[in-house]
Write a structure and sequence with these properties.
- By secondary structure, the protein is an all-alpha fold.
- It has two helices and no strands.
- The chain has helices spanning 3-25, 28-39.
- It is flat.
C-alpha cells in the first residue's frame, strides 16, 4: 500500500466521521436535549440565595521580565 492509497483511506474515514456527526446533530432524538441546553442559560439559578458572596476581581497579568 503506497502513501496515496493511505491518504485516500484516511480522507474517506474523515468524510464518514463528518457525515455521522452531521446526521447525529440533526437527528430528531437529539432535538429535545439541544433545545433544553439552548434555553438553560435563561433559567433562574435556584441556589442564588444560598450561594456565598464571591467578589470577582479583575487582575491584569504583567510581565516583569522585560
Amino acid at each position: 500500500m503506497d502513501y496515496g492509497t493511505l491518504r485516500g483511506f484516511f480522507a474517506l474515514l474523515i468524510l464518514a466521521l463528518f457525515i455521522i456527526i452531521v446526521v447525529w446533530a440533526y437527528s430528531k432524538r437529539q432535538k429535545s436535549s439541544f433545545d433544553e441546553a439552548a434555553t438553560s442559560i435563561f433559567e433562574e439559578d435556584e441556589n442564588k440565595d444560598n450561594a456565598p458572596n464571591h467578589k470577582v476581581t479583575n487582575k491584569q497579568e504583567t510581565n516583569n521580565n522585560v
